[in-house]
Design a protein that fits this description.
- Helix content is 31%, strand content 26%.
- With 252 residues, it is α/β, with parallel strands linked by helices.
- It has one domain: Ribonuclease Z/Hydroxyacylglutathione hydrolase-like (Metallo-beta-lactamase, Chain A, 4-Layer Sandwich), CATH 3.60.15.10.
- Strands 6-5-4-3-2-1-14 form a 7-stranded mixed sheet.
- α8 packs parallel to α9.
- The longest helix is centred in the last third of the chain and has 12 residues.
- The chain starts with a strand and ends with a strand.
- 47% of the residues are buried.
- Bound molecules: zinc ion (ZN) (2 copies).
- The site of one zinc ion has 4 residues, from loops.
Length: 252
């Protein structure tokens, strides 16, 4: 399996996953033009893309979904609650429904969907499975749930939200209601909680750990890296996914 975070953060998210001739995209919070730029930069062929799976309907995950699906003539997959909350903004695309908890098959890839704790009607995390190992993707969650803890055991690669540094958030410029939202169980993970979860999920065959959805206001790559290095004691070299350029293409 190959994967690449084309963008990660509150201004847009998209993760490319590829196995053999088939690729899928997890969320599309990039304009179609920017998506093409970044796919090109990463050496990925948009012609391979078979569909887009949507985790939840916040703008940073769907802003480019409609144009991309129309341009490439591919379907968008989302659960009903997510679809109903975004259909108007997405416009005319082929919607294929799944129910949270379903396992979906795309050629050699299987995608397990599972609920997470976030402030939309039915947000999901993804576990992507192939013969070479599993990739877990969980961002936009206020608290690690038992299900994520359980299903994300034994991964080959993990993309995990490291949204904010607690002190930066609390002392930073966000208005109080927004600080409360971010800190709530349906908000976003802070570095310390995420690092604790990464340490729980770590095992010696975990090949890639990608820190994702960092806040530009309330976090820095250095703070996120410091938190995870302390928790993991140098057992793996984590990579930060950025807002403005794609990560390298990871492979396992
Ligand atoms: Zn988000
Ligand atoms: Zn969100």
């Amino acid at each position: 399996m190959k994967f690449c975070a084309l963008a990660s953060g509150s201004r847009g998210n998209a993760v490319w996953v590829e196995e053999g001739d088939l690729a899928i995209l997890l969320d599309c919070g990039l304009t179609y033009k920017e998506f093409k730029n970044r796919a090109h930069l990463a050496g990925l062929d948009p012609g391979r893309l078979g569909c887009v799976l949507v985790s939840h309907e916040h703008t940073d995950h769907i802003s480019g979904l409609g144009p991309l699906c129309r341009a490439l003539k591919i379907p968008a997959l989302a659960n009903r609650a997510t679809w109903e909350s975004m259909a108007e903004r997405v416009g005319r695309v082929t919607w294929e429904a799944f129910s949270t908890g379903d396992t979906l098959s795309f050629g050699p890839l299987k995608v397990r969907t599972m609920p997470i704790s976030h402030d939309t009607p039915d947000p999901v995390a993804f576990l992507i499975q192939s013969h070479s190992g599993d990739l877990g993707l969980a961002t936009d969650m206020g608290a690690p749930t038992g299900l994520v803890r359980q299903k994300f055991q034994g991964l080959a690669a993990l993309i995990l939200e490291f949204n904010h540094d607690y002190h930066r958030l609390m002392e930073g410029p966000y208005p109080w209601p927004l600080k409360q939202r971010v800190r709530s169980r349906v908000g976003h993970l802070d570095n310390e909680t995420a690092a604790g979860l990464a340490a729980e999920l770590y095992h010696s065959d975990l090949r890639h750990l990608v820190l994702a959805h960092l806040s530009e206001t309330n976090n820095t790559p250095e703070l996120a890296l410091q938190a995870v290095r302390e928790a993991l004691a140098g057992s793996i070299e984590p990579v930060v996914a950025g807002q403005w350029s794609p990560t390298r293409v990871f492979e396992f």
